[in-house]
């Protein structure tokens, strides 16, 4: 730690605060919502944080005083700073302050200043400190109570602590307000992209184009499949458009990887790109990378699809996600490859599948169990088909609008990163003593520490008297 201002000292967190862990929370007590003590869990901490609040007073679970005695849990006083102590949640650096006395489960840790006046100062300092960096585990990150107690804290005079905390409250409230406005952008962009896709595949996006041009209806599309309206509702289309079964317009083929077990290492690490559901972009679009490759043995039991193929996920949690390959790839039968006459028409197919993604998902859940889609569902899917010239116009317009959305998204991510850095910069400045002026009349931190140690000693639980010694003294007296 850099040189501290005059009258500041560096101390162990454990010397000025009480560090406590939560306790195991048996399932038979969970779900109770009308008892006296809230039981704070990692989800409660995250929920408060995500609602842009640093204050925690509610939980989804409560216990009575009697249950509290049975569980023998530490009661976390008002002003305690709570955070996750294990797992991925530990890395998220989320801190909240308890505003209703309660207990916590064993995935949560709490820090309470010995002097109540220091609660806000310690809360802000722990916001600036990467607690996850204390983890000694190489698998699941976790921290120990003793390691938290050993965190070094720059202790300012008490009056200066209060000034720092007040200043930080004022500044970071403005940062949080800006962050709250920024956090609305992803959902706005999601709605925008979805509305573009819906407009593109309903004819609304190219309405003006049709007014200026006389599109010739697409040539008749024939095939063995008939339209199935069980997934999407039939709606009116522009006069030059028509509904056709997807399988009559494009070839839909399941991927293939027939080796068992599927993770047989003798099939991988070769020259042939192999994609799986996790490689599909979350919002659709192009597939630019892959995590696995097949060797000659793996390639011989798989199937290769050309660049420009539309890929549709047909099983699992990300069912109905799509992507378009940018180079030849192989993939398993959990994915379907869809190919029409050209890359441009394939793009249009991708837009349509993305536009009806939620409809496909709902249909996949209807059978119960693990959601899945069969080719017998894909081939009869109704496709709104415009003329070939209009497809070219649609693709050009969608690409232009999506490029604008991507530009806004990049600006959002850059702004969010700057705000995150700004918060840490402000906190760092505060704990270097540069945020508020020092006052020579303030009680030095050394004197403050003496008072804290005395207070800590005073509040130590008194040890029970030794019964044997007490009895001996009684006999001696008689």
From TrEMBL:
Boundaries of every Type I restriction modification DNA specificity domain copy: 5-185, 238-411
Chloroplast among keywords: no
Keywords: Coiled coil, DNA-binding, Restriction system
Residue ranges of the region described as Disordered: 459-478
Keyword match ATP-binding: no
Record Pfam families: Methylase_S
Recorded coiled-coil stretches: 391-425
Biased composition (Basic residues): 461-471
Domain of life: Bacteria
Family stated for the protein in its record: Belongs to the type-I restriction system S methylase family.
Protein name stated in the entry: Type I restriction modification DNA specificity domain-containing protein
């Amino acid at each position: 730690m850099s040189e501290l201002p005059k009258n500041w000292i560096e101390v162990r967190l454990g010397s000025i605060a009480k560090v406590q862990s939560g306790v195991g929370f048996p399932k038979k007590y969970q779900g109770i919502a009308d008892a006296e003590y809230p039981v704070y869990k990692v989800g409660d901490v995250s929920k408060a944080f995500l609602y842009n609040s640093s204050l925690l007073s509610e939980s989804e679970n409560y216990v009575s005083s009697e249950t509290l005695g049975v569980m023998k849990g530490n009661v976390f006083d008002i002003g305690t700073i709570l955070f996750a102590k294990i797992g991925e949640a530990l890395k998220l650096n989320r801190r909240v302050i308890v505003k209703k006395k309660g207990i916590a489960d064993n995935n949560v840790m709490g820090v309470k200043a010995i002097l109540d006046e220091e609660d806000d100062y310690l809360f802000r300092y722990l916001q600036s400190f990467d607690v996850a960096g204390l983890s000694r585990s190489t698998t699941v990150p976790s921290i120990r109570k003793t390691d938290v107690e050993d965190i070094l804290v720059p202790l300012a005079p008490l009056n200066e602590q209060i000034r720092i905390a007040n200043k930080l409250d004022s500044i970071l409230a403005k940062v949080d307000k800006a962050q709250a406005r920024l956090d609305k952008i992803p959902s706005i962009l999601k709605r925008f992209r979805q509305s573009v896709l819906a407009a593109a595949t309903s004819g609304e996006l190219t309405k003006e184009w049709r007014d200026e041009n006389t599109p010739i209806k697409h040539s008749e599309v024939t095939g063995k499949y008939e339209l199935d309206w069980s997934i999407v509702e039939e709606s009116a289309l522009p006069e030059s458009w028509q509904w056709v079964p997807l399988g009559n317009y494009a070839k839909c083929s399941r991927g293939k990887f027939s080796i068992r077990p599927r993770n047989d290492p003798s099939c991988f690490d070769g020259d042939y790109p192999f994609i799986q559901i996790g490689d599909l972009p979350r919002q659709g679009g192009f597939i630019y990378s892959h995590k696995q490759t097949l060797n000659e043995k793996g390639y011989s039991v798989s199937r290769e699809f050309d660049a420009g193929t539309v890929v549709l996920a047909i099983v699992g949690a990300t069912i109905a996600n799509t992507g378009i390959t940018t180079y030849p790839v192989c993939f398993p039968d959990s994915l379907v490859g869809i190919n029409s006459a050209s890359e441009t028409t394939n793009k249009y197919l991708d837009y349509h599948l993305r536009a009806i993604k939620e409809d496909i998902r709902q249909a996949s859940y209807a059978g119960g169990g693990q959601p899945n889609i069969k080719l017998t569902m894909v081939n009869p899917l109704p496709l709104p088909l415009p003329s070939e010239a209009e497809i070219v116009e649609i693709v050009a317009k969608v690409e232009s609008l999506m490029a604008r959305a991507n530009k806004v998204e990049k600006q959002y991510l850059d702004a969010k990163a700057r705000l995150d850095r700004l918060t840490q910069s402000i906190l760092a400045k505060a704990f270097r003593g540069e945020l508020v002026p020092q006052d020579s009349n303030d009680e030095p931190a050394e004197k403050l520490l003496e008072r804290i140690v005395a207070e800590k000693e005073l509040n130590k639980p008194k040890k029970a008297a030794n019964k044997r010694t007490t009895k001996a003294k009684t006999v001696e007296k008689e």
